Amino acid sequence: MQLTRRAFLGGAAAAPVLARAPLASETPAQVLRAAPVSVQLAPSDFPKTDLWAFNGTVPGETLRLRQGEMFRARLENGLEQETTIHWHGQRLPNAMDGVPYMTQAGVLPGESFDYAFPLRDAGTFWYHPHANSLEQISRGLAGVMIVEEPQGPDVDGEEVLVFDDWRLDEGAQIHHSFGNRHDMSHDGRLGNYITVNARPELTGEQVSGARLRLRLVNTATARIFRLRFQGLRAWEAALDAMPLETPAETTELVLAPAQRADLFVDITAAPGEEAMIASVERDGTYAMVTWTASGPAQAPRPAPAPLPPNDMPVVSPDTARRQPLTLEGGAMRGLPEQAVWKGEKQAARTLIEGGQFWLFNGVAGMPDAPLLDASLGETIRIPITNRTAFPHAMHLHGMHFREIAADGALGPWRDTLLVAADETREIVFVADNPGDWMFHCHMAAHQMSGMMNWIRVT
Predict the structure, then answer these.
(1) Which of 67, 277, 291, 436 is deepest in the core (most CB within 10 A)?
(2) Boundaries of every domain in the chain
(3) Is 317-457 in CATH node 2.60.40.420?
């Protein structure tokens, strides 16, 4: 199936245990059942697509909660394989992190698991399995979790936009090519059909001059969305749930797998014109969201105020312990003659036959020893050097980090950082959440074929 939606108009080029305030309340237990479902994903002249979903919807049910609440959820497994839920971006107790055989046992078919943790941070998060992630996420198991601030921003409306891609066969079914060597050793499982909120394009109407809060989430396992705006004035307000000190005006946004962005946008299109969000793809630029502006037009507003900050630690890079991380392997660059896998040095051919194509510091797959063993409260800085021919979306569980710029300035708080080929990016964080935490590439094919490690905080 080829992408057949209309091109974007307008001349765009193709191309824990943590200190916190007392809990305000406790949410009722949320039941999330992972099970098969059929969804009209492709256009109506195609059959429904057999997917896996939480509570029968794709994307999964949006969980809207309040900062300071205690969140409780029960995962019920209606699949034929084990699963879990990882609450991506949440700073939570280690036992609730949803990583099978690291923080919990996998939830077997027909069984359930109860999650409970305080919602310390406001922002845009998402939830997804961390068992057989490549297949389970690619089949639709993902949803958005919104934790609202006590006092919301001054906007006229809010939209949640979930960007994803799907690899479909000619009958609009999920292609069974999971784990093939090409995907694993190249840029991952890229789909041939892109959607927003499981639709090829969202359309609607907005008042000219209205201000919206947009919550954008990339749930794809490999695709990097490059989004452009027309008929909109946009400001980045938060990245990976963490507010920026000052909203930053932008005309486009790069959203790597697992990343989120909160935007304020003003509809600048005149009544009768269109405001658009488009995705720049290899074969063209495609409208993903199209709003027709209606009148009468509202007067322009001043730049938006920042969102209230979450309670984040103070980082001191100058006193931090340094732990380098080098990414190697993959197609084009290849593996060295020998590398460590399963605790022993193995020939490159052995790794390839075992589906391992990538290395962290010369090690493939999850090692017995952590990348680093940090003391609680210690500050750590990790220069990440990408010697591969592909970008990687590096995700740290349980904690957020800041990037250290070349001039020493600290970037915004993130939990997922896109590191391009032949690039070195350095992050710094405070190890303030005890437990064993995964640190991996969020391109799921890369993670499952070598690019995963872990950090211990004690």
Answers:
(1) 277
(2) 30-148, 157-294, 317-457
(3) yes
In this predicted structure, what is the pLDDT of residue 29?
Answer: 86
- The length of the chain in residues reads 458
C-alpha–C-alpha distance, residues 208 and 275, integer Å: 9
Beta strands in 67-196 (DSSP E): 70-77, 86-88, 112-118, 123-128, 143-148, 157-166, 193-196
Write the burial class of residue 327 (CB in 10 Å: 0-12 exposed, 13-18 middle, 19+ buried): buried
- The number of C-alpha atoms within 13 Å of 346 and in the hemisphere containing its C-beta is 21
Distance CA 11, CA 366 (A): 46
Identify the pLDDT of residue 26.
Answer: 60
Query: Which residues of the chain are modeled with pLDDT < 70?
Result: 1-27
CB 305 within 8 A of CB 271: no
Give the pLDDT score at 27.
62
Task: Look at residue 204 and give its three-state secondary structure.
Answer: strand
Class of domain 157-294: mainly beta
pLDDT (tens digit per residue) in 89-142: 999 999 999 999 999 999 999 999 999 999 999 999 999 999 999 999 999 999
Return the number of other C-beta atoms located less than 10 Å from residue 141's C-beta.
Answer: 28
Fold of the CATH domain 30-148: Immunoglobulin-like (2.60.40)
